[in-house]
Specification:
Number of strands: 8
Strand order of the largest sheet: 3-4-5-6-8-7
Strand content: 15-25%
CATH class of the largest domain: Alpha Beta
Structural class: alpha+beta
CATH architecture of the largest domain: Alpha-Beta Complex
Largest sheet: 6 strands, antiparallel
CATH topology of the largest domain: Aspartate Aminotransferase, domain 1
Shape: elongated
Radius of gyration: 19 Å
Distance between the termini: 26 Å
Order of helices and strands: HHHHEEHHEEEEEEH
Helix content: 25-40%
Amino acid sequence: MAAVLEKAGAGAAWDRLPASQQRELVRFLEDARTPGSRVRRDGQIVALVLGRRTDRELWTCPSCGRSFVTRNMYHSCVDRSLEDAFHGIPDNIRELFELVRRTVESCGPVTLVPYADRVAFMVRVRFCGARPRKRWLDVEFWLTRRAESPRFHRIETLTPYTHIHTVRLTEPSDVDSELGDWLREAYAVGRQEHLRPARD
């Protein structure tokens, strides 16, 4: 990877990254399963190391009025409500969701985006979601690092800085300070703070 970074003129920028971020990027590259995937990930890492623009305006769908980072991003224009997402779901699961909702809203302004079977939370981008089921509530949130905890039901790595963590909640005590810390970290991702250039 060092040769790729130097060829792209990203060596100095790499050296300025915190060691924790360097480890995440190295792990992302090493997880590539094919030579082609490794080449694509090399390009992604170079782009991330050199930085991205974050000041572009959101695109607003002319049909439904929802805003997205990517122009013409695929989505459903159907207007849903919380009642749609929680249709047939027991009251105790809805109460769990309200606890999560209050925790997320304590981080700052947030937009709820209901779907037929889940609810997303959005600031600039969607950073968290809740999927209600009859016996539990799955809470998914986006962190730029791969956190480690036995509480995670699933972790899905999509890009070097996109790790979707899922916690399965079954009782109110599951909405604790640890989950709150993860949700606050995810809220910062929703604000795209991780894409802002570091200041000396």
